[in-house]
Amino acid sequence: MKTAVFVAPGKVAVRDFAMPEIQKPTDAIIRIVRACVCGSDLWWFRGLAKREAGSVVGHEAIGVVEAVGAAVNNVAAGDFVILPFTHGCGHCAACRAGFEGNCLNATEHGSSGFQGEYVRFTEANWSLVKIPGQPADYTDEQLNDLLALSDVMATGYHAAASAEVHPGDPWW
Ligand SMILES: [Zn+2]
Ligand SMILES: [Zn+2]
């Protein structure tokens, strides 16, 4: 299966990898339907942030569940899902307080390699969001809208809420 990798600033390539497999009971394997490029991908693409050469890239996607680990019961093979860019275990103090990005049980930076054909997604039970129906039930525009929910929309909303921006404010 093919996945995009970082080569050097200004250069991304598509390489062949072995199919991802379930490694922990909390994993899921997802077939990617759509992925997108984040503003934060442009940091390393432009050479403003360091990234290991050959590392897989992409953290925003929608897809269909191929397989789940034994501890995953909120989603099942065949479900159409949003893959959130940052996600924790769902049960530590940080996650329970709403700060999943600071999950105390994080052993890796969520999942990466979403700009590929398949991905191993960690903490799947807690964080995958089911979309009703299947990709074929949606238009191109709707699929793009759903894709924005994996990061861009939620991040933008969080920024506006944190800045206490309200309808009627001069910059609204
Ligand atoms: Zn992003
Ligand atoms: Zn956690």
Task: Give a structural overview.
The chain has 172 residues and is an alpha+beta fold. 19% of the residues lie in helices and 23% in strands. It has five helices and seven strands. It has helices spanning 41-45, 93-96, 124-127, 140-148, 152-162; strands at 2-8, 11-16, 28-35, 61-68, 80-83, 118-121, 129-131. The strands form two sheets. It has a five-stranded antiparallel β-sheet with strand order 6-3-4-5-7. It has a two-stranded antiparallel sheet with strand order 1-2. β1 and β2 (11-16) form a beta hairpin. The structure holds zinc ion (2 copies). Residues 88-89, 92, 94-95, 103-105 line the site of one zinc ion (ZN).
Produce a short descriptive summary.
It contains 5 helices and 7 strands; from the N terminus they run βββαββαβαβαα. The protein has 172 residues and is of the alpha+beta class. One zinc ion is lined by residues 38, 40, 59-60, 85, 151.
